[in-house]
Amino acid sequence: MRIIYFYQYFTTPKGSYGTRVYEFTKEWVEQGHEVIVVTSVYAKSDINATKFIENQTIDGIELKIINVKIDNKQSFLKRIYTFLVYSFFSIYYAFTLKGDIVIASSGPITVGIPGLVANIFRRKKFVFEVRDLWPEGPIELGVLKNKIIQKMSYAFEKWCYKRSSLVVALSPGMQQNILDRFPETNVISVTNSANIDLFSSPKKEIALPELRDKKFAIYTGNIGMVNNSELLYRAALKLIQLNRSDIHIVLIGDGQLKEALKKKSETISNIHFLDLMPKNDLVNYVKNAFVSLIPLNNTPMLATSSPNKLFESMAASVPVIQSTFGWIKEMLEKTNSGFTVSATDEDELVKKLIYLADNEDVVLKMGGNAHEYAKANFDKDLLAQKMLNGIEEVYKRK
Q: Is the pTM of this model over 0.90?
């Protein structure tokens, strides 16, 4: 097959973002398929361009790069503008690229525009990959308030589902949400994944002197409102109040709240902020942590999320503490590989941190459970094949 993949955030392990599309398409290319990814320039990616439209090839994956920059630090309106610019120029590729299957990976939901164009005007089979439930997520978080735009977004979402031959949801929770609202949709769940070999590599000494021989919990990713990063600051403060400054919290990433939290934390010795780093470098920090933190706000939409840090932590044999009450909570309980705590009460989080810091046998047991489950269910090659199987079924269907 020749697959055209519209996705704005493409990165490789040299970047500081999720590598799902890279890992999956690399596997498909190795199986003999042709893949063209139409992408843009994301601040956390290692993909750059010197011209407005640039062609590159990475590990057999052909890239069409539209040089419009996306950054989580941008205002909501600025990000909407970049999404629309990408979609506008992607329409050219929707009309001109030869392909058997067209995949549009949302969010943002505007990436569905070139997918629909290829489907409607060129009769291409359309696969709609749902990473975030748009527009429910932005509406729930109070970011998208305009009622007219909300109605337009819901109508466009419905159109994407109606025109798609296959919907790929990134979690069982998303899959169920879509089926509840659009029961006729052909939808499968293919979660985010982990490079099991990479995250199973031997643990090495941490390069940062202030973290050597320290017990630390780790958070990786965007430091912002959605990610409830303030909770980690309050937890670090509480640990000091309880004379447990031996337990450290490390945040690796960037985002709108990072500088403000760093400023507030200047007098606190047990919280550390590190800059974005390539995934290959990040692995050792994750493996040296005694627990991984995923403190998302507990909203219905975020309860359906599929955060990369979950799968990578489990692959690294690291237990997880998280704060959503959906499919992740059920999975952690079933596998005994982590805990779920309140998204607003730092006391709950602190109790679990102290418990794990003081019980290495529990950490080892939970970490082992996490690794085995990740190996059996979240391996990148396994999930790349699962998605490819769904695409091939659609391709063969008349």
A: yes
